[in-house]
Specification:
It is found in: Cell membrane. Pfam families: BPD_transp_1. This is Phosphate transport system permease protein. One of its GO terms (molecular function) is phosphate transmembrane transporter activity. The chain is an all-alpha fold and 324 residues long. It has one domain: MetI-like fold (Orthogonal Bundle), CATH 1.10.3720. It is globular, with a radius of gyration of 27 Å. The termini are far apart.
Length: 324
């Protein structure tokens, strides 16, 4: 019986030729570099557009600005300041309500819920992000506003000595209601991001904490939360970015005003930049268009500053992210 001998691996001749994948690497590098340049070019073009179309409003005299009806004889910065305040106030309130709830939901999905329940709940949270903002506006106007009105009345009756809760009058079309709707809108974005960060926590860190006698809560506090701190900040900034630029839901719910105060329950006190642009742009012409674009430039700068601050914070925390 003959035995077939296979040649040894060392005796197999090596054919000379080009290294595999070199052309693909060049194509991939070129596409990546081009994509980065394209993003920077688009950002530069948007910035140039906003600045060029805002210059007429920034350089206009007081007499010219007085002809813009919706400014009500205010200077440009006196008109922009309440809008900036309303934008930041609504976004901060929305973030304050959404972030703790997002962390709790993300922890439940990643570390407490059974696998099937966690998968189903994760899908439901992700589906919330697909709901259009106008639907959230209708939900807030038709369901949330009547629901919150008795609660706001109770706050005014019992805590009205605090300016935050003073002088409520129905309906509840105020900055607090708009912020609660915004918190629901940004909840799926923040939750999905934090959930993935928590799931990426090294198993060895969790097991080491449990092996030292830590309870489930102590393990989360010692291993999961420190690891996900930068991810929580990143997710919060993503949600803040949407809250700053949200238009339709705020426009449908909030009774607008141009005041700088902390009367959260009073209607007709606040307005956001994005909702103001959407509400005024249909009837704007001439210099009034430039004024609205100037407010858009201010919103662009605010968003840029917020994201820069977030990147700075994340960079400072990257030396100890929990994975190092």
């Amino acid at each position: 019986m003959s035995t077939t001998h296979r040649p040894a691996a060392d005796s197999v001749p090596v054919m000379a030729g080009r290294a595999p994948g070199r052309a693909g690497n060049r194509v991939f590098t070129g596409l990546s570099f081009g994509s980065g340049i394209l993003i920077m070019a688009v950002l530069a073009l948007v910035t140039a557009f906003l600045i060029s179309r805002s210059l007429p409003a920034l350089t206009a005299s007081g007499e010219d600005l007085a002809d813009v009806s919706f400014m009500k004889e205010r200077s440009l910065w006196a008109y922009v300041a309440p809008l900036v305040f309303g934008t930041l106030l609504s976004s901060v309130l929305a973030l304050g309500a959404a972030v703790p709830l997002s962390i709790a939901v993300a922890l439940f999905i990643s570390h407490f819920a059974p696998r099937r329940l966690a998968q189903g709940l994760g899908y439901l949270v992700d589906l919330l992000a697909a709901i259009p903002s106008v639907v959230f506006g209708l939900w807030g106007f038709l369901w949330l506003v009547p629901l919150l009105s008795p609660f706001y009345t109770w706050l005014t009756d019992h805590l009205g000595f605090i300016p935050l809760f003073a002088d409520y009058q129905a309906p509840a079309k105020n900055i607090l209601t708009a912020s609660l709707v915004l918190s629901v809108m940004i909840l799926p974005i923040i939750t999905a991001t934090i959930r993935e960060v928590f799931l990426a926590t090294p198993t060895l860190h969790e097991e080491a904490s449990l092996a030292l006698g830590a309870t489930r809560y102590e393990m989360i506090r010692q291993a999961v939360l420190p690891f996900g701190r930068s991810g929580i900040v990143s997710a919060s900034m993503l949600g803040l970015g949407r809250a700053l630029g949200e238009t339709m839901a705020v426009l449908m719910i909030l009774s607008s005003g141009l005041s700088i105060n902390l009367h959260l329950l009073q209607a007709g006190q606040h307005q956001t930049i994005a909702a103001n642009i959407a509400g005024q742009f249909r009837e704007a012409y001439g210099l009034s268009v430039n004024v609205l674009i100037a407010t858009g430039l201010v919103l662009f700068l605010i968003t840029f500053a917020v994201n820069s601050a977030a990147r700075w914070f994340i960079a400072r925390r990257s030396e100890f992210s929990g994975a190092n």
